[in-house]
What does this fold into?
Amino acid sequence: MIPRVNLPRRTALLGAAAGSLLPTLSPRAAISEPRHGGTLTLLLEPQPSSLVTIATSAGAEGKISPKVTEGLLAYDFDLNPQPQLAESWDVAQDGLQYTFHLRRGVRWHDGKGFTSADVAASILLLKEWHPRGRGTFANVAGISTPDPYTAQIHLSKPAPYLIYALAASESPIVASHIYGSGDPAANPNNKAPIGTGPYRFKEWQRGSFIRYERNADYWDKPKPYVDALIVKFIPDAGARAAALETGELDLAGENPVPLTDIERLGALPHLAIETRGYSYSASQTQLEFNLDNQHLRDLRVRQAIAHAIDRKVIVDTVWYGYAIPAPSPISPLLKRFYADDVETYPFDLAAANRLLDEAGFPRGTGGNRFDLTIDPNPYNPGFIRLGSYLRQALARIGINATVRSQDFAAFVKRVYTDRDYDLDYNSLSNTFDPTVGVKRVYWSKNIKKGLPFSNGSHYENPEVDRLLEAAAVESDPARRIEQWKQFQRIVCRDIPLVNLVTLRQVTIYNRRVHDHTLTADGLNSNLSGVFIA
It folds into this structure.
């Protein structure tokens, strides 16, 4: 059995990297014990399309879903599993069976009891419908429920990452009596959810807010402490900064304001900055090549574009220091898997121009070699600055780039369904394990029309496929780490994507709010322990 570790109520030290980035972080004041009462306001941006993540991996949905719909496990800041709906668990020595011993006395918000049947139904739904769950639970051969409080997952092959995939935002446990049939993405419960969590859904005013109220029947009494949770949508970053200043917002994560405002806001007496709560999902910013493009299928052209990009400029001018250079598919923040000996393609305009000449694309009239389009994911406002930089960088080597803008749905359709793009850039999560967060982008079997955030480049390499498939079932940790490092060396030579930077995320919070960040997923947790002083 994996030992149960009690989560600390607060951690005194920040990570070294985050501490060097934000030298002005304010310490948390000594406070009394948690107390009931008050209303908590949380920022959510953009407005979600669903309030349950059973069939989506979108960012906003991942933040809102766990407040109502919980997971089997939570994770401390070092990604050690902690109990949530499962009190304890056992993993068979051969890695082919996971047994979860569930909490007794847990009730759904409609009064029905939570049982192992709900766990079995949820895992099977995630395996079929969830964008990442299709890979995470691919080896699930069956689920048995010997009694109402025991669920056993049986695997056809080991899945060493599975024990880390069971957070509420990633693998929600939904009610089998509600999701018993049909397409879970179309289930009405997604708009007015019933769960086991600390907050009960009350109303959703589209374009304005979602209101939740305290679940007085919550299994982890005396939690939750706040009477109401108001989730607000504020699209404009400047308006979000103002809302934090005035106290309209209590909590806002993922660098919620203009980056130039973070230090100023953190210095205000009623606000503070938290850098923890992002270790469950390191975000990797990538420039993706469409390898069906006549120019980009040439390795020398891709190498030239990589040499034309200065990651230090991106860190300093695009992200104002809230990023670190990240030349590999695996973020440096995912330390145990990261390879520090990959090809990095350092900034070198002479090498870039030479490669383009060798590829047979000489400069023509006005110095132009050829034209490309660049499509940014509109999710992050920093991508506007990144687009301007990339356009200028490519112009210096004779590539005329047009940066196009569209809403999120149009971006996803253009890149993953229509394939009407040359270059796109995105921030994709490595998640808690590269088999879940990285494999999808490079595995040739993940070239699927219409599947978002997958192998959009159409990259194929049999040796890469072999390593990805081997690492997904390797039970020896040292051997598995080496497989991932070999993978990184190969794809950084093939360069179907230019990996640019890993974002450094912060949460800005009102000092009256305590215990909002206690786990690796920060504000994506259920927030059951948060209280207002």
Summary: DSSP finds 15 helices and 21 strands in the chain. Residues 58 and 107 are 27 Å apart (CA to CA).
